[in-house]
Amino acid sequence: MSGITIALSKGRIFEETLPLLAAAGITPTDDPEKSRKLIIGTNRPDVQLVIVRASDTPTYVQYGAADLGIAGRDVLIEHGGAGLYQPLDLNIARCRVCVAVRKGFDYAAASQPGSRIRVATKYTKIAREHFASKGVHVDLIKLYGSMELAPLVGLSDAIVDLVSTGNTLRANNLEAVEDITTISSRLVVNQAALKVKRELLQPVIDAFAGAVKP
Ligand code: ATP
Ligand code: PRP
Ligand code: MG
């Protein structure tokens, strides 16, 4: 496309991006929660949105299938960020990555340097680096969702997952025992597109920057 393609995931990122798009004068013509369309037009004939899985956003932008995208820092750490320019922290979809265990589990004992712990997570890179920095041997079990279930059914001792209100942990009799890092979503830009289409992309980037809430 000679115009701009923006990759967004539906759900919280799409919802929280709407005000930023509005600041750039962009209004989607469909709601991805209601439509099955994966390419959504906007009021601007030169701007389209593509609806992707949250964890796929960096890939679409890296390969230039989208010029811009919005992705959580969790997703960007796991992806590695190759080929991506990350000019803005948008301060949306804020949460943290935590280690959590069943209430009553002796995490202090289980996470002594030299010990071995079984951890279920979608975030294998973040988890591997975290436990390596503590000198704890970790057996990682890769999951794609519902991480909170794993300690309840004996799949793992601990999980590494996102926590926001803590409601999901509480509902499942788990507790956060360590904060690893804080997360918010970032604007990602294809590096080549920024050179070739700068006059189109820069005003959108600037409008987003002006609309970021502290
Ligand atoms: P995928 O489709 O890749 O498995 P997902 O369906 O979990 O991801 P979302 O739940 O929409 O996708 O999460 C998108 C991003 O929003 C995450 O990468 C994270 O940065 C942030 N996020 C996830 N959960 C929360 C939460 N409970 N509160 C605030 N931000 C969150
Ligand atoms: C995310 C995350 C946690 C939950 C934490 O799940 O994976 O399970 O939010 O938020 P809380 O601390 O406010 O409860 P999400 O709602 O995205 O559901 P998902 O399993 O479909 O990703
Ligand atoms: Mg989620």
UniProtKB/TrEMBL annotation:
Transmembrane segments: none annotated. GO terms for molecular function: ATP binding; ATP phosphoribosyltransferase activity. Pathway: Amino-acid biosynthesis; L-histidine biosynthesis; L-histidine from 5-phospho-alpha-D-ribose 1-diphosphate: step 1/9. One of its GO terms (cellular component) is cytoplasm. It comes from the Bacteria. One of its GO terms (biological process) is L-histidine biosynthetic process. It catalyses: 1-(5-phospho-beta-D-ribosyl)-ATP + diphosphate = 5-phospho-alpha-D-ribose 1-diphosphate + ATP. Lacks the C-terminal regulatory region which is replaced by HisZ. Catalyzes the condensation of ATP and 5-phosphoribose 1-diphosphate to form N'-(5'-phosphoribosyl)-ATP (PR-ATP). Has a crucial role in the pathway because the rate of histidine biosynthesis seems to be controlled primarily by regulation of HisG enzymatic activity. This is ATP phosphoribosyltransferase.
